Amino acid sequence: MAFKSKKNKNLSAGLTLTSLVDCFSILIVYLLMATAFGENLFEIPEGMKLPRSEHSDQASADVVVQVRGYKYSIDGLEIPMSSLARELKNKASLLSNKESISLVIQADQTSEFSQLNPLVLAGMTAGFHKVQFAVLEEDL
Amino acid sequence: MFKTKKKKDMDFEINLLPVISVMAVCICFLLLASVFVKTGVLETKQALGTQAATKAENSLSLWVTIVSDTQLSISAQGMGPDNRKRTISLEQLKEHVEGLRAKNPNLSTALIFPQDRTNYSTLIKTMSILRKAQLRDVGLAPL
Question: What ipTM was reported for this prediction?
Answer without folding.
Answer: 0.74
